Each structure stands twice: as C-alpha cells, then as structure tokens.
## 1
Amino acid sequence: MDSSTRRRRTGGHGRTVVLGLAALGALGALVTAGPSARAPAPADRAAPSRAPDPPAAAGAPGTRASRIAAVPCPREALRVVRMPHVIDMTRCDPRSALVEGPDGLGAVVPADGSSVAASRLGTRPGEGMRSLVVQVDLAKKLVVVSDREPGAPREASGPAATRGPDPVRAVTAAPPSNPPAPAVAPIPACRDSAYRHDGAPIPSKRRGRAVLKWWYYPGDGRVRRLSVAQQKRAFTRGVRIAAEGRNNCRLGRIAVRQVLLGNTWRPPGVISSGACGLADGRNVRGWMRFTSGETILGLTCKWFRRGKVVEGDVALNGAGVTWTTSSRRCRGNTYDAVGVAAHENLHHMGLAHVDGSAHRNLTMFPAIGACEFHWRTLGRGDFLGLKRYYGAR
C-alpha cells in the first residue's frame, strides 16, 4: 500500500501522526547535536594589565547580558603597577573609588561616566611633572588607567609643520626641577614652535570665542612669604596670562575671555594626599595644604567627556613650599606662584607637556626651577597651541 493510500484511509489522524513524527525527528537532531551547537561566548578584551577578577558576573563585556557589577573593586584592583591598566566593570565596580598609579598619583573614578586627568608638578629632583588619566567607558563597561594625557596629542615643529595624532605612548619622565646644563641648547622661546594638545579644550559657548569662568578658593590664608592679597593676585595674574596668551613675541592675544566669579569656600576637587577627588561643576583655583609637604608644587584635575572639558580645578601647595610673586624678591628654594598658576591653567585650556630639554623655555615644559620666571610669558609654541584651539584677536 503506497503512502498516498495510507493518508486517504487515515484521514486527519494520519496527518497528525506524520507531523508528530517530524517533530520527534527534529527534537532528536537537537539532542544529538548537544552543547556543541551553541555559539561560542565572546572572549574578554585583551589588555596589557588587568585588575584581579573578584567574583561577580553577569556576562562578558560587550554582550547584552553584561551589567556593571554590584560589588565594589577590592583595593588590589585599584593599585596600578603597570600602565595602561584595565578594570572590567562587569567584575567589580570602581566608581567613586580612588585609583593610585605606580608613583602615588591618584584620582577618584567619576560615577557619571566622565573621565579625569591629573597632572602633578613636583619639587624633588628627577620628578618634574607626573600625569594620570582615568578614562571611563560605560558602553564597554571598562575603565582604563594610563599616564597618557587625554585626547589625541599633536605636535608642531614649525608654523608649516604637518600635524597629526601621535601614536599611543606613555608620557616620558620630566627632567629634574633643577636640571643640570642640558645636552641640547634650549631654543629661544620666540623661535620654538613646538606644542602638544591634549584633545580636550574648554567649550566655546559663543561662536568664535570661549569663556573661562572660575572661582577663587583662599584656603586658610597661610602661605609662606605671601600675604592674603598676594595669594589671590598670583592666580588672577596666572589665569590672565594663560587666557590672553601673553607673550613677548609680538604674536597678539588669544580669543578667550576669562571671568572671575568671586571667592568660594568650596575647595578645588583635590584630595590633600595629592590626588583628584570628585567634580562639583565649578572651575576652582586656590591654595591647599598637601600632606606630602614640599614635594608638590601644584596639582591640576581636569574632568572631560567626549573631547570637551566638564571642569578644571587647580591647587597650589600652601604647606612646605616657599612662594614669591616678584622676581626681585626671590632667594633660595623659592618658586614663582604666578608662572606655576599660568602653567597649570594652560592644562585646563587643553595644552599638554612638551618634553625635551630643547623646549625648556616654553611655558608647557614639564619642570620649573627655583627662582625661574619665564613661565609668565608664553613661548611661540604655547601661543600657537592656544591659537589652533581658540583663534587670535
């Protein structure tokens, strides 16, 4: 009896039997295939250094099932030994916790998804400037800690030089704060066109002109050899030098307007140990008493998101450091408060350090010696870096 005859005799029940057998056949195929038929789970992102894996887990980074872990990161995951260092947020949550770099410079991981860059200027021989950048990527659930300044650095060796992003690299160690005679003769400031961008300028709310609004924090008023009036004057002069691009090279002025909004009793977003704390939405400059004493001259903390600055705070050390605002009254181990304030403010405005002893006459050279006052006037490279961001007037 052929199959068509059987189907006619069984009627509707025959169709039910045939469909049932087909379903059983498909189920058997699935059982035979077993677990090997599943798609492989995506591998974790490779990184030069990764935080230890505490128990947590809601899927691999980048998958729909991945979620930020509910457990905070252990302390060993927040101590960075080698940079760049990657923290997987699906394994532990580092937000609002302090991350410390190999040299002790640290920053609190922002909780709102922004990133933070810390720049510390020291006084100890061989230290110079140190940088730490904590970049938060909530989409990928990753936090990357490095010593590379934010954004895409750019360099120029002359007015017509070809400018382009540098490869990712660590910022080289700065020369000593009181360096010996350099092997390469310094280029005169008005002939040195070198500069570097950090990729995060202050936003321009008005077309063609950026506005820098800031507050002054006086601290406890106790700064060695500076009166209360001189302490504030150091910042007002330093901010004005950076915002206007003051120079002795007849290059004009930068098209940035700075506005001092007044005094505030809310300190800069820094920690007394010499680390960046949390942002509060205000650009604050002022004096802090760092627990490390005379080893820190100043600290700049800069929060940024999508290539734009969210906030920038600057703190100069009022404990253990001797300051001056006059080149005629400098002696011994004394530092220029006006020049250091100008240098730190240029960080907020988007300039990065220019390494190499040939560039030591530029304001963005990463070290300053006692009784040196050349940071008060920008070099050609400093001015060109600002002009590329904000234009001139």
## 2
Amino acid sequence: MKLQYTNVTKDKDGKDVTETREITAYTNNYERSDGIDTLGQEFTFDLADNPFDFNMMGTRLAIGGKIEFSNQVSNNNKSATTTLNEEPKEEVVFQGIIVAEKQSGANKYTYTCFDYCFYLNKSEIEIQFNGVSGLEAIKKVCKENDVPLGNVADIKTKIKKIYQGQPVSDVIKDIIKQATEETGYKYRLEYREGKVHVEDYKDLVLDKVITQPINNYSRDLSMEDMRNSIVAISSKEKSKSVKSTIQDDESIKKYGLIKKIIKVDDKKQAQTAQIAKKTIQDSNKIKEKLSLTLLGDDTVRSGRVIIINDYTVDIHDKFLVTNCKHNYGVNHTMTLDLKRVEAELDTSKYKTSTTTTVTPNATNSTANATQVDAGMNALNGYESVYRDNGCVDVAVKAGSYYSPFLKQQADIGTADVDTLVNNAQNAGYKVETFNGYANKGDILVYGDNQHVVISDGAGGCFGNSTSAGHAKFYPDANYAWHNGEAPTKVIKMS
C-alpha cells in the first residue's frame, strides 16, 4: 500500500511551489467507502505528527491538498496468513482532495478526503433543457462544467426543465430520475478513473462468484416501508385529475391496508397507471437487508451486483451492493450492505383502476387507409424511449397520423397498455374480444393488456419489436407478441 500527498503553495515571491511526498510511513487506518445514494467516495486515514519527536514532527497536511492511495494487487482477497507470490504491481484505488482534519490528543490527526465528485456535489449550475434527450442533457451539463465524461447510457427520455442554483450532481440525478420514472430502467451515477459514468445496472454485474468465508453476518427483515395499495393522482387542479389505483388484496388481507398516494406532474398524467404499478412493485414486499464482512476486493463498490455462494449462512444469490466500506490494515477487508436482486413483482392479479377525462375530437371517425400507411411508414425503424416496453408509444405515435384520439394519447405521453385501453373505453371506443378480424388502423391487444400493435387490415400488423429493438411490420399478427399467439382484444378505431 502507498499513500501519496501533493500540495501547491506559494513561495516568498508568490510563485507556485509543488510539494509531493509519500506519507505511508506515518499514516494508518486507511478506510474507503461509498453508498448507492451518494456520488463519489470517501477516504479517511490517521496521521502521526509528534512535536516532541524530530523524525515525526511537521508531518501535518493542508486542507485542499491532494491524496492518491494505491493498493497492491496481491492484497485483494488475501488474509495475513495466506501465502502468495507477491505481485509488485500496485493500482490506484482512490484520488481526491483533503476536506477536513480532526485532532485527537497531541499527535494524532484524522483526515477526511473526497474524490473529485466533491466539486460536482458543491458547485451549482443554471441551465435549461427544451426537450433534448437525457443523454444529450447529461453531455451538456458535463461539457459546460468541464466534467470528463465516461460511459453514458443511451437515455432517450425528453428533458424539459429549468435548473437554477442546483448542484451539478443533483441535476444529473434528476435527469436519471425522470428517465427511471418514465421507463422503469434504473441507472447508476458514479465517478471513477477521473470521469463521470451513467450506466445501466445490468452492465455492473461483477463476473466472479464469492465463495470465501463470511464474517459479521447479519440479516434484517422489516415491513415498515411496505405499501400494498398505491394511488397515483395528477397534481394540478386546473383540469380534472387522472387517478390510477393498484392494490394487492392478498397482501392487504395478510398485513392490513398500507396505502401510499403519489402526486404525478400534470404533464405525465397519462403515465399514472405505469407509475402506480412501478411503485407497488418496489414497495409491496418485506424489505431485507444483509450486512457482512469479506476479504477485500478493490473491484467491489456500491452499485455493483455480486454473486455469493456460501454454505455457512446458506446464501446463494445475486446481491446489489448498497454500501461498501474497505479497510486496509493487516488484512484488507470490506464490509458490505446488500440488497437481494429479485425478479420483477408480478402484478397481473392485482386490482387496478384508472379514471381519466379524455375527450377525443371525433369518436367514430373512419381511419383513412392512406393515413394509416403514412403513420406506419413514418415510424418504421423507430426506437422507442421505453425500449422493450415501447409498444404503446409506437402505436399512438403511428396512430396520430389517422386518429385524433391516438394523436391526443401521443401528445399527453400515454405509454401503458392499461391506460390506453381505459382511455379508449372512456372516450367511447369499443373494446371487443378479438374474433380473428380487424380493420386497418384498429389497435390489437395481446394477453392481459400486455402488448399492442396496429392492424394492417390484412392479417398483419405494425408495432414495437423487442427482439429487433425498433418498430417494424409483421406479416402475421399472430407472431407480433409470442409465436403463434393471437390478439385477445381489439380497440375498434372505426
């Protein structure tokens, strides 16, 4: 292990003087930590400065000085009793700035350092976005603040917002939050190797299985944060609100009714059903928290997904690291707070309802074949911001070319099948059981409101394709969702 210190001061002539020294010999108790809800890492250590010892005096460090900590590669996954061929290679695991000093007694000083995200968390910004993608918004924020950018996910969510006086990190977090609320996809914002990265969690799974002995194991279970009934309501009162409710009657019967009410921005009122569904998927469960200590591995930090296979405490699963603390001493150890990675909660049997006040310009207008073709051709190859869940997004945007109702749904951002079906029924359109026939421009519905496409009137259809990653034509509507599975309903657009 090696700890390096660099500081720039002025000499008597006002010129910069750079001081660089290795301080490993008179420092110890190195600790590096981060959490999933914070941007950046914290590093602390103790330093000895003894005014009565000539060899140990004058060692104190300056606030604002730079720190670089390196760890020997062979010090990973190794105990003090392990005999390995030592690798001389060292890797830098922390670079940052000293932000605080604490003195204890006459000669002990504890220093707290943050990586360079310290500036992103403190520096404020004024910026406006007028409908650019989340990806472009993040690029602009970083460019205007001279922040080096690393990997950034292709976030297509449109950002329309003015930010005044918010920290740079909070602006990026808000952009990510909007994308998650709209699409359900979660992203990790972190700083490493001198750059800011915004990545999908699925890209942060470590390709190793932890089988080493576990120490200090604890497991907590709690229903304090459980919610088994969600009501999402548009927040503005200038028009009648859109209200979506979803609840799990079985959970209510077992644990009692625990309701949460969410206020949804008026611009997203068509997404109330999707927001309610996502919220209950996240909160209708017994919350589990695991904590344990393992031999340290510098590749592990918060936001990573690790695989543990341990028979001592019978853990065999994937876990998201929510908090991570590395201790570098005789042994390099790490203490982890973990959250089990679970499959998305199945809400197909939950009770749902959506009340809305959609009034189309024309309820019984006949779809014009030329306009239907124009809409489908215009959207052919379109990549929805909702990716695998973009079927409604594609249908209403293509449908906007021939249907005032579908245009209205596109304008207000309808993106959920339940909402589209409910809005159509409330607007006076017939939703019928599919009998094998549909007119050109009708909306075909699959499963239990799980997928939609536009009928071409000749047995085929047009819609979003998960496998292709974009909107496309299907020669046979029975192969637009699952192979050989016909639609279950049809929304009669004419």
